[in-house]
Amino acid sequence: MESNNVLNIHQLNAYYGKAHVLQNVSLQVKPGEKVAILGRNGMGKTTLLKSILGIGGVKRTGDIRYGQTQLTGKTTSDIARLGIGYVPQGWLLFRSLSVEEHLIMAYKPGREDEWTPERVFETFPEIARRKKISGTSLSGGEQQILAIGRALVTNSNLLLMDEPSEGISTMVLERITGICDEFVKQHKSILLVEQNLDLALKIAEQVYILVNGEIVHSTTAAGFKDDKEKHMLYLGI
Ligand SMILES: Nc1ncnc2c1ncn2[C@@H]1O[C@H](COP(=O)(O)OP(=O)(O)OP(=O)(O)O)[C@@H](O)[C@H]1O
Ligand SMILES: [Mg+2]
C-alpha cells in the first residue's frame, strides 16, 4: 500500500446486521485526485461512504486508512473529529437551524484560500437570499447547495460527496465542477458517488464500478467514457 494516499481502503467488508453489503472493496485516493464510484441503485455506494465515516449503523472489517489513521477501529465521534467533508445523500439538514447557522456550525478555519460561510454565500447567491430561514424550508436544489456549502466550510483535505447532482440545475453543476477543479489544485481530494455518468466523468479522473457490493471494474475516466458496452453491462445505460 502506498503510504502517501489520502484514503487507502483495503479488503473492506461492510454489514447491516447479517446483511453483507460490501465485499472485499479496495480503493485508493491520492492527494489532488478526484475519484468516482459508479453503480446502479442499491449497489452499495452510500454504504461505502458510511463505512468510511462509521455512521448509519454499518459494521465494517478490513482497512480504511485516512492518511496514517486507521478508521475501522474508531468510533463515529472520533472519526467526526477528523473533519472529513461529507455531502450526504438526502442532505440531512436541521429544521431548527437557519441556512446561515448550518454553515457557521460546520465552519473550521483553514488556510488563506479557505471556505467561509461568506464565501459560500458569494458563490451561491441562490441560498444567500434565504440565509435566515430554516435549512429544511429551502427547495430540494437549494438544500443540496447548502449541504455542499456545509461540507466546503469544514476546509477538509478530503471531500466525500453522495450524488451531489441530485436536484441541481446544469448552471449550478458547472459551478460545482469548477469548485472541484480548484479543490484538487490545492492537493485536496474528492471521492464522489454519482449516478449521473456525464458529471462523474467530467469531475473524476479515476472511476470504480460497484456491482452488488463488489468493485468489478476500475479504470480512468477517459478509458471509461466511450466504453458503451461497459456502461450497459454495469450501469444499464
Ligand atoms: N440501514 C440499512 N439496513 C439494512 N440494509 C441496508 C441499510 N442501508 C442500505 N441497505 C441495503 O444495502 C444495499 C446497498 O445500499 P446503498 O444505500 O449503499 O446503495 P446505493 O448504491 O447508495 O444506492 P442508491 O443509488 O439508490 O443510493 C441495499 O441493498 C440496501 O437495501
Ligand atoms: Mg446511495
Q: Could you describe the largest sheet, including whether it forms a barrel?
A: 6 strands, mixed
What coarse outline follows from CA principal-axis ratios?
globular
What is the multimeric organization of the chains shown?
single chain
Termini separation: 34 Å
Strand content: 25-35%
Note poorly predicted spans.
none
Secondary-structure element order, N to C: EEEHEEHEHHHHEHEHEEHH
Rg for CA atoms: 17 Å
Category by helix and strand content: alpha/beta
Helix content: 25-40%
Number of helices: 10
Written overview of the protein:
With 237 residues, the chain is an alpha/beta fold. 35% of the residues lie in helices and 27% in strands. It has ten helices and ten strands. It has helices at 45-53, 76-82, 99-106, 117-123, 125-128, 140-152, 170-185, 197-203, 221-225, 228-235; strands at 7-16, 19-29, 34-38, 59-66, 69-70, 85-87, 158-162, 189-194, 206-211, 214-220. The strands form two sheets. Strands 6-7-8-3-9-10 form a six-stranded mixed beta sheet, with helices on both faces. A four-stranded antiparallel beta sheet has the order 2-1-4-5, with helices on one face. A hairpin with a 2-residue loop joins β4 and β5. α3 (99-106) packs parallel to α6 (140-152). It is globular and about 45 Å long. The two termini are 34 Å apart. The mean pLDDT is 95. The structure holds adenosine-5'-triphosphate (ATP) and magnesium ion (MG). The site of magnesium ion has 4 residues, from α1.
